[in-house]
Specification:
This protein has 220 residues and is α+β, with helices and mostly antiparallel strands. Helix content is 29%, strand content 26%. It has seven helices and ten strands. The strands form two sheets. A six-stranded mixed beta sheet has the order 1-5-6-4-3-2, covered by helices on one side. The chain has a four-stranded mixed beta sheet with strand order 7-10-8-9, with helices on one face. Strand 2 and strand 3 form a beta hairpin. It starts with a strand and ends with a strand.
Length: 220
């Protein structure tokens, strides 16, 4: 069975291009504490990793960015790498290399919101259902009898004589009830077809404006 070795970390040197293959150094520090009874401790070892151009191209990383990334290298020890190219203590033939997340970046990421209990989750779901219920129960807009067209309130010109008084409370209430029930006024607003001037139904116009209706039914 072939010897296997796995290395994790950032390159400690820039990547060297030797034409058919590339090489770079990585360092592993080893365990800080040896098993009880062993008087030695594991020291840091520098490895020179050799990989093919094809393996490097799959990473889709430039030579300049390479030393700033973190990698997992799986390979086999090699004693045949030329001395001048093997700047580390042990040579490694790369069988597989992949980029991994930097631990520092992971620590900077915001913590995930803890999961809520089933009771709190049910309360949120119930609240969401209640908020969406009025939209589901919203009735289709009623088209009052006699409607010739629909116009925005801004298009309707109101004479000064109408603007000088306020419709009675009873009339306003009747129109408000129609808007709440049907989504619009109970009857069309009477206007001049040419000038769009209000001729009648000022109370309906008044309440529609107060309720911020986008459009109202009109009759000529």
């Amino acid at each position: 069975m072939a010897h296997k070795i796995s290395l994790t970390g950032c390159p400690t040197s820039s990547i060297q291009d030797y034409g058919k293959y590339l090489a770079f150094d990585m360092e592993e520090k080893g365990s800080p504490n040896a098993p009880k009874g062993i008087p030695f401790k594991s020291n840091a070892i520098t490895y020179t990793v050799v990989l093919s151009q094809k393996q490097f191209n799959k990473l889709n990383i430039s030579h300049e960015e390479f030393s700033l990334r973190r990698f997992l290298v799986q390979g086999e020890p090699c004693l045949d790498i030329p001395f001048e190219q093997c700047t580390g203590e042990i040579g490694v033939i790369c069988m597989q290399i992949q980029e991994i997340e930097d631990k520092g970046k992971e620590e900077k990421q915001p913590k995930q919101t803890p999961k809520k209990g089933s009771r709190a989750k049910k309360q949120e779901e119930s609240k969401s259902e209640q908020e969406s219920k009025p939209q589901q129960e919203k009735k289709p807009l009623l088209v009052p009898k006699g409607t010739k067209d629909w116009m925005s309130l801004e298009e309707i010109k109101v004479p000064e004589t109408f603007l000088q008084f306020t419709p009675g409370i009873a009339k306003q209430k009747a129109v408000e009830e129609s808007i709440e029930k049907n989504g619009t006024v109970d009857k069309p607003i009477i206007i001049d077809p040419d000038t769009h001037e209000l001729l009648d139904s000022y109370s309906r116009y008044f309440v529609a404006k107060k309720k911020n209706l986008d459009r109202v039914p009109v009759h000529y």
